[in-house]
Design goal:
4 copies of one chain form a homotetramer. Chain A contains 10 helices and no strands. Chain A is mostly helical. Chain A folds into 2 domains: 7-55, Orthogonal Bundle (Arc Repressor Mutant, subunit A); 62-202, Tetracycline Repressor, domain 2. In chain A, 39% of the residues are buried. Chains A and B meet through helix 1, helix 6, helix 7, helix 8 and helix 9 of A and helix 1, helix 6, helix 7, helix 8 and helix 9 of B. The structure holds a DNA duplex (21 and 21 nucleotides).
DNA sequence: GATGAATGAGTCTTCATTCAT
DNA sequence: CATGAATGAAGACTCATTCAT
């Protein structure tokens, strides 16, 4: 969390209300497509009152993005360097899939931003995100050297995990259209599928 | 194609110029974020002239989308029902990856649209796209019954192929930020990775 | 002063703080260009607190203007009807020049107001100010009749004194730009200049 | 004039209409006090149409200022270095007074800008204006050395001329209030006054 | 076919002022 | 006395679309 000034209870509540409304609107329409009006209405506040809490539309957006990036990376940080490689990575896949199920708006917020070239978050991608991914990749490579993980490019492994899990949040409109599914049963099927999929890919070849 | 009137050569050329410019702009900024001005400037035409060829901004957008959907599905149609299952699917993966490399704007155009709930293309998703995917799934299931393909959910297999291949186009900003790569070498690494990945997943278990 | 209610010490102090801050802000940006926020911040008070002491932005402005008008006219009142005409008027010129040096904000406050048509101070111009100027003019005319002052239009003499002395406050941005002067040395040169200038103009022609 | 692009007749006409309306509004209310609405209404155009011709409110303002600065300095340039000093300077005073009578809006536009610290025209003051004034001052000093002009500081002489003549435009609200004059007769009295005034100041002392 | 000109409907933002405590 | 919170009204600017030639 990025709380700087001391905040009264009402301030904290309203800032959170606004950020939640903004998550709704930005994740559905992207930055340019979203309007302050929508955010204010969703938040149940007047437009100027929203701007009382955040200096500008852009300020809301960046507050959202940076506030969420941390949360977004937690599952990756939670991989235990001393654990069993295949299990650790499979658990990571499941955590990511869970996040797509539980926080689809957050996923789409990032998706929108990145598809459009990440104009407002490139710094954080090239900084903290890259560092974390690089460290994790080093760990994966060690596991492979130790014969406990298949020979596999660690960066692209991570990309594939992101792609396959976030896909269920980011492209849910398409998935629901094809599966004719209103509910979330397909997440369970997806979990089985990905379990099978990644286990085969990760287990080191015998000999 | 939805072109009814007979067209002079110049009309055809201008329509294509506009659609190409629109692809540039829409894929980078999404529907709301794009402006007719940008499209007209990119196309080298005046704004009213652009609207002479297309009734509205929305008309350009939907013309683009439906014009491209066909092309987008071609690789899936190209799977040979009488071919060798694993080879056929791996070839499909490679064709999709090639499209991400060759037509990243098209990929991002769809990504933008679908992330935002596919408001203008849901019909085509629930119609032709679903049909094609369902047919292909039936084929996959037959292959599995015949013991020539691993036991794997065909819909989610298709989703995973879309996710892993399109990811290189749709999230290229993130990938380039992490790999610090300006060029396209990572597509070759990705090809190797996906080849390994999907081969392991698709080959049926012995016995 | 237009203060009716009895005031505590703290009230008096705050009113003065506000007026001083308002002088800063109004003289630099004019009425429309100034904001309550700027005034409140400059005064070190909260915006509602400022409005606790003055009913409105306009009230602050008019309180300032009328509070200062008196001070502004003092030098003119100080001309001694029984003094030596040329000396008296020269002394008046010097007092006015001193005020431009010492109270440039006040001068610019009036300048702003009058350049924009004096919408909020016209009454006082057509009332007390006109009266005072007319009286002084009568005195000047008497001095001319008595052969102790050159034949010169008294109103325009007063205008010229206002113009030449206030110019150093009101147009100081221009003067500093041309003289490339940060300090106030030019006020001394100006004093010499005006002394020479007005002495020649005021001394009655011999015969 | 600062015409860059080729302009159609209608463009030229509308740009001029807008600049004239803007002169009205800016000279009366200053930059911040003026609204695009007022300018558009005065010009008889819609607000967006005004912005079709000028990129922004500020663009209109600076176009006005720089377009007028040249005109504003013409009378100073017209002083003939080979003429009779006192006559030349007196003629300059009269030209300046005429401009105050004929172009009071222009005068007030500059006055507003400079009183508020010349934020948008300081460059031109410290550049072309300073140069011209410095050259003229050198000429005045030469005339004094040649015994054809009184010993007088040339910069402050120029300031006094600006002050006394522009005063009739910039502070006309005050002057009209005091003289109870609706017309322009006072300009004739002012001309006589300034003639007397400056002649006495400029004629070199005998011997 | 093509374009300069024009505009209505937004969209973000500012700001004086009010409300509640 | 003082202030955090809230807002209506206005203001600058954008943009898809239409008009007229």
């Amino acid at each position: 969390m990025t709380i700087q000034q001391p905040q009264t209870r009402i301030q904290k509540k309203n800032r959170e209300t606004i950020l939640d409304a903004a998550l709704d609107v930005f994740s559905e329409h992207g930055f340019r497509g979203a309007t302050l009006d929508q955010i204010a209405t969703t938040a149940g506040l007047s437009k100027p009152n929203v701007l009382y809490y955040f200096a500008s539309k852009e300020a809301i957006y960046t507050a959202l993005l940076s506030g969420l990036l941390e949360t977004w990376l937690d599952p990756l940080r939670a991989i235990d360097p001393d654990g069993e490689p295949v299990d650790e990575i499979l658990a990571y896949v499941m955590r990511k899939l869970d996040m797509s199920r539980t926080f689809p708006r957050e996923s789409r917020l990032f998706a929108n931003e990145i598809v459009q070239g990440a104009p407002r978050i490139l710094d954080q991608i090239e900084g903290p995100l890259k560092s974390l991914v690089d460290e994790t990749s080093t760990m994966f490579r060690r596991w492979t050297r130790e014969g406990r993980l298949a020979e596999i490019d660690p960066h692209h492994l991570i990309f594939s995990i992101w792609a396959t899990t976030q896909h269920y949040a980011d492209f849910s409109a398409q998935i629901r259209g094809i599966l004719r599914s209103e509910g979330e049963e397909h997440f369970d099927v997806a979990a089985d599928f990905l379990e099978h999929f990644y286990r085969r890919a990760l287990v080191p070849s015998p000999g």
